[in-house]
Amino acid sequence: MANDTNVENPSDPVEQKETLDIRTITEQIGKIYETLKAMVAASQTAGEPMDGATEEKYDRMNKRLSALISMRDQHYRLLDATAQATRAVGKKIETMSATKTTGRRGDQLANFFAGDEYRSTWGKYLRTGTHEMSREERAGLNEGVEAEGGYLPATEFLSTLITKRFQVNAMRQIMNTVPLGTFETEVIYEDTIGASSYIAEASGATEVTPAFAQVVLKPYTLRYFTKVSNELLADSPSRGAAFNVESVLASQIGRSMGEAEERKFCTGTGTAMPWGIYNFVGVVRGATTGTETVTATSNVIVQADLLNCIAALPRQYRDGAKWIMGDSMFYKIRQLLSGVISTQTGYAPFAWSLGDGRLQDGEPDRLLGYPVVCVNDGLTYPAAGTKRVMAMFGNFDYFHLGEREGVSVKVAKEVYLANNQTGFFAFARHGTDVSQLAAFNALAIKA
Question: Which of 51, 99, 240, 268 is the most exposed place for a label (fewest CB within 10 A)?
Fold first, then answer.
């Protein structure tokens, strides 16, 4: 019968025996679904029902499809249970918040910032500046003076700011953060290791000395600035707990700084700003050069380009590797599922083996088995004739964020008095660098 011969496939997905990890399960679901769909279409085209043998095959494959879907759902339920048990992102936020509010002058100063006296003084400073504060209040506030001329926030304010900054900036969640000294900090790393070799009996061994190198993290200043009506500041205490100047400012500063940092951690030039990870392509450090995989076709990305990018990363760095990319690149790759921009045909669920758009409890999508972190890199998918790095694949333990402790805030009242406004400035200092260029491989769109 015609509809039977059209769907016969020597590589029957039901008969394939292999280790069923989640990637394989998802890929087989797609293959079997496409085969079943083709069998139904052939029957409809022929205008008659399937014959006995074809219907038997259809039932067998449909049963296998149900089993695979059940296995996939079991895997997702396991992921959900694991995520609920660990709450890794929440714990990391708490840890970072605690870290940032301790250690500037030891636990004694941290306890001072957390005390009621400093918190009350800090709130008054935000609303009135220093001119309406008593000598005792100004003396207490000066305990938190910072290099930029601002003051270190009270603990609650700083904790809110850091939490928002961390949540908005996905790069902070995957980079290696180290504390900076007064100006610069050196990060020492292993550049080359000694080579091992077999030797003949009674032969002498040749000594090979490993080499070490360093990168220097130099901080750059990030500034936030906003103006607030003095009437709003004066009236805020009477508005009740629903409107609190301290919490609003902390949230706004954290979100604004987080968004600005994330863009520069991706595309920064290293001049008057931190280095961005995308810009390490072509950088030479010792015997290593930052590498990239360029798509085979101008202005087009296909599945093979993604595989080539992964394969170009040395195997020792793939364990723990991640993808980072902006939304424009993320949705271009997503279209590979429907074949919109891919020259390849057929169902391609293997590309997104986990997540399927689900983002719960910090669980990211996975592209070819590796987590995808969507970032605000500020880039759009390039037009024809323009080459542009649009994603990075690598191990971000080797991308270092050197950070001075805390964020300082300065209130400026007189400067904006003509408009009856108060200015608020916030300052943070940090720098970035890569210690192992070989740990990263960029994905660029061909011009």
Answer: 240
Q: Cβ neighbours of residue 173 under 8 Å, at least 6 residues apart?
A: 89, 92, 166, 373
Q: Is residue 282 part of a domain?
A: yes
Q: Which residues pair with 213 in a beta bridge?
A: 189
Looking at residue 16, its pLDDT comes to 52
pLDDT band at residue 354, thresholds of 50, 70 and 90? Answer: very low
CB 439 within 8 A of CB 392: no
What pTM, to 2 d.p., does this model score? 0.65
Confidence band for 358, pLDDT divided at 50, 70 and 90 = very low
Grade residue 118 by pLDDT with cuts at 50, 70 and 90: low
For residue 219, CA distances in Å to 65, 392, 396, 432, 435 come to 55, 23, 19, 8, 16
Is there a contact between 326 and 376 (Cβ–Cβ < 8 Å)? yes
Rg (CA), the chain: 29
Same domain, yes or no: 32 and 178: no
pLDDT of residue 334: 79
Exposed e or buried b for every residue in 267-297, given b needs 16+ CB within 10 A? bbebeebbbbbbbbbeeebeebebbbbbbee
Q: How far apart are CA 184 and CA 146, in angstroms?
A: 17
Question: Residue 33 — very low, low, confident or very high, per pLDDT cuts 50/70/90?
Answer: confident
Distance CA 22, CA 353 (A): 7
Cα-based angle 180, 185, 191 (whole degrees, multiple of 5): 130
pLDDT exceeds cutoff 70 at 207 = no
Q: Greatest CA span in the chain, whole angstroms? A: 98
> Which one of 29, 55, 86 terminates a domain?
86
